[in-house]
Each structure stands twice: as C-alpha cells, then as structure tokens.
Design brief:
19% strand; single chain; 38% helix; six-stranded mixed beta sheet; elongated; eight-stranded mixed beta sheet; 491 residues; 18 helices
Length: 491
C-alpha cells in the first residue's frame, strides 16, 4: 500500500469556500468573535467607499499575535473542531477569519502588534491564482508602514490586531453608487452586532464588557427579552450534559399595547414580533440562533410574546451541530424533552397575555365586556348583556329606549372590523390608542356612577362584589381596593 499526498489546489479551494453562505453582517461578527477571544474590550469597525481603494477594517485592542500565532490564524483549518477550547473562545473550526473575510473581499490583510513585535500577513486571491499555490504574503515593516489604516488605527496602540478587507467584489457586486450600498449594508451590520453581542455590550457577570464602534459611532445593546420590563414565566432551569451546564431562562414580553414604538422596532423591526418568537441560543453568551421553535411549536400570533434563552458552553458544540458560520444549531436529543415541556408552558402563558391585554386576570368567571361563544362555524363575540354598567343604564330607560339600545348593540356586534384588526395586529399597529391613565380615569368615573345609582339598593353588596370581578374595574388595583373597602364598610 502506498500513501499519496493530495493537498488541495489552493485557488479552487479558496474560491469554493467563499460560497459557504456568509452575508456581510455574519462575516464581520466572526471577526469580532476573534477580538473577544483575544481579550479586547474595544473594537472599532471602519469603512470607506471614498478612498482610492474602498475598504472595511476591524481593529481591536486585544493581546495581539506573534509570528507563530498570526501564521496559524491565516492557515486554513488551523485548529481542530474536536479540540477543547478556552471558555471565552468563540471560534469553532479554525476557518472563520479566512472564510468570513474572503467571502466579502479578494484581499485580506491582517496586522498584529505586541509591544515592539509587529507582524503582517496577506491573502490576495489574485496572487494565489497567479502562483497556483498557498501563497501567503508576509509583510515586512516597510510594507506595513505604507498601509494607511495601520498608521491611522493600529500604530499608536500598545497591542492589538487590525483586519483589513479590500477589493470588495462580493460586497459591492453590481453597485452603481458605492457610498449608498456600503452605508446601507453597514446599517445591517450595526443592527446585527447590537443583537448578537448585546450581552457583551451591556456587561454581564462572567464576561468582559466590550464597546463596539462603527466609524466612531458606538453600538447600543439590543436586548431581545426587554429584561426589566418582561416577566420570567418560570424559574430558571439548569441541565447537566456531559458534566457541563446548560441554562434555560423563559421570558414573556409585555403585551404590544405596553410597548413603545422604539421597543417594538428593536424587538421585531420590519419583520415583526411574530418571526422572532421562540428560542435564543447563546454560546458563551454570544447569540447564535434566534427566532425558531425547532419544530416544537409553530409560530403564531398567540405565542409571539414568548422568548426562551438557552445558554450553552463551547464544550458542547459537537452536540448542537454548529455550522462554520455559527448561524445554525440543533438541540441534542438529550435536552429536547426538557425544552418541549418548557415550550408548552410558555406558549400558554403568551396566550393569556394576549387574551387579557397584559392585565391581571381576576377569574375566568368574571363579568367581562365581551362574551365568546363557540358555534359550529367557529366563534361569535357578543357584548355582555349582564354587564353591571349596562344594567344600570337600562334601569333609567323606558321600553322604547331599551329597544333602540338593543338594536344599536346588535349593530355594533355585527360590524366588528375583524379583518382590519387582524391586519393591524400583524403589522404591529397600536390598536388601543387610549393611554392607560385615561382608561383608568374613565373606569373610575364609571365606578362612581354605578355606586351612586346603587347606594340605596338592598343588593348593593352583591353588586359591588360583581364589580370587583368586572371589566374594566378588575384591571386596576386601586379601583379594586376601593371597591373592596366599600364592600367591607357595607359588611
């Protein structure tokens, strides 16, 4: 038996790996991963469509690389995916720097500094094609000094790494206005990084807080859970898998009527809340995958408020089927049952939040404004004829006036704009235009009117008891407390 060494043909392999499927924002996120792993706390992304050679650069103040380290960083497959990694390492296959960068450009330059030690390397695909080999270019000090981005960005730092993309063929493909296309695409990058690294941008126990700037404009973290305003649906859970901990936290967003326009944009943007419901998978607190139920549950309007955060360590990468772009992960069978159980609970909680508009439900037996009735063809909504306010009103009307009122109520019931309401809700429109304080003030006035009308009624206590469980009074704590006090005084 004879062994034949068959190294891949460099131009073909390098060109092929450009088609792995990176978009611009995922590619830059991969470079930021390396900066985080290098203990950087400041990352600056620059881009310019106006230079003689348009470019994108990513600069960090991490520990930098020496000659051996930078050579390995530029080598394809520099580290086995099966090898144990440091806990803060966000890498996976040892391909990210090269494949992510060259998916967007034809010329990748990396310059790294450790005190007086300065190293530079370059992959130029045109040079690789010319030589037909793995022709990594080593830059000497004179070469590096001619690079504008080095002199402006890295030179004054004590340590750090600068990644430069030039010949942006994929990024600017077909562009007639380079400045417009670059500015638009970098807006996508800003939104993507604000979400993917939001826990690093906010600062959290166990990780180093970082700042990320794009052309000197700082990124603000985009929290998909609105922590502080959302509610935890159940206690956090921990699963032990192969002696490693997987943490699961469940969040219920406030009802859409409780969100500001800015909050709705941050949570769903143009794609809406519905698309982004479900699991959010974090690897070392870096967001990998979001907006999926992994086929445990289908996306619908009633579960759109549900978010489940799953924290996994990089030691379990092999179980989660993580891809090269770190944009796909599949939960292992060992925790699927636990996740399915959590999905059932949180989807039910989300349904309640929608049904009761985020307000406290006193009892399903309460006296609501609308009644829902199931019929053979579906459901019918009718105004509650037994509502205490309606009964109070009817007591002051004669038979002719009651008949007119009844006809009007039927007209309202038969002409609900259901189709338009459905469209507005799907488009995240603020259907309830009244402010909460105005609605509460109206409820107070209604309560006073009813109490005044029943002050001499022998059934006053029973009617107050009904009011405590009646819309809209049951939705406001102060009104319930006042009615309870009135009830106690009667007793």
């Amino acid at each position: 038996m004879k062994i034949i060494d068959m190294p891949p043909f460099a131009p073909v392999l390098m060109e092929s790996t450009r088609a792995i499927g990176y978009n611009l924002e995922a590619a830059i996120a991969d470079i930021v991963d390396n900066s985080v792993a290098a203990s950087a706390n400041e990352i600056n992304i620059f881009f310019s469509p106006y230079d003689a050679v348009p470019y994108v650069s990513i600069l960090d103040n991490g520990v930098g690389m020496d000659e051996t380290q930078i050579n390995n960083a530029m080598r394809y497959g520099s580290q086995s995916s099966l090898k144990d990694r440091a806990e803060n390492d966000l890498g996976r296959f040892g391909l990210g720097l090269k494949t992510a960068s060259l998916s967007q450009c034809r010329c990748l330059t990396v310059i790294s500094k450790q005190g007086a030690v300065l190293e530079g390397r370059r992959w130029d695909l045109d040079e690789v094609y010319r030589t037909g080999s793995w022709s990594l270019i080593k830059l000497d000090k004179a070469d590096i000094d001619k690079i504008p981005q080095y002199n402006i960005q890295l030179k004054e730092l004590e340590h750090g790494t600068l990644v430069i993309w030039e010949n942006l063929d994929r990024m600017l493909e077909g562009a007639t206005a380079t400045d417009k296309i670059m500015n638009k695409q970098m807006d996508y990058v800003r939104n993507h990084l604000s979400l993917v690294f939001h826990r690093y941008l906010s600062g959290e126990t166990g990780i180093k807080k970082i700042s990320i700037n794009i052309n000197k404009l700082p990124l603000t973290p985009k929290d998909p859970f609105l922590i502080g305003k959302s509610t935890n649906f159940q206690a956090d859970e921990k699963f032990i898998i192969e002696k490693h901990i997987v943490n699961v936290s469940c969040y219920m967003l406030p009802h859409i009527s409780k969100l500001t326009r800015q909050e709705k944009d941050e949570l769903g943007g143009s794609e809406g809340l519905t698309k982004n419901q479900g699991f959010y998978i974090y690897r070392n607190k870096r967001l990998l995958v979001w907006g999926t139920w992994f086929r445990f549950h289908r996306k619908d309007e009633l579960s759109k408020l549900a978010r489940i955060r799953v924290d996994i360590p990089n030691a379990l990468d092999h179980l989660w089927t993580l891809d090269i772009r770190k944009s796909s992960a599949i939960p292992p069978d060992v925790i699927k049952k636990n996740l399915e159980r959590i999905v059932e609970r949180i989807s039910e909680g989300s349904k309640r939040a929608w049904t009761f508009r985020g307000k406290r439900e006193i009892s399903d037996k309460g006296n609501h404004l609308w009644n829902k009735t199931h019929i053979r063809e579906g459901v019918v909504y009718n105004l509650n004829r037994d509502h205490i306010f309606l009964n109070t009103l009817c007591e002051s009307l004669d038979s002719a006036q009651k008949s007119l009122l009844e006809n009007y109520l039927k007209l309202v019931e038969g002409n609900l704009p259901l189709n338009q309401l459905y469209v507005d809700l799907n488009n995240e429109e603020q259907v309830n235009v009244r402010k909460e304080k105005d609605a509460e003030a109206e409820a107070w006035e209604f309560a006073k009117i009813i109490l005044n009308n029943i002050k001499d009624n022998p059934m006053r206590s029973e009617q107050i008891q009904i009011m405590i469980q009646t819309d809209p009074f049951c939705n406001y704590k102060k009104i319930v407390e006042y009615l309870t006090e009135e009830l106690n005084n009667d007793g």
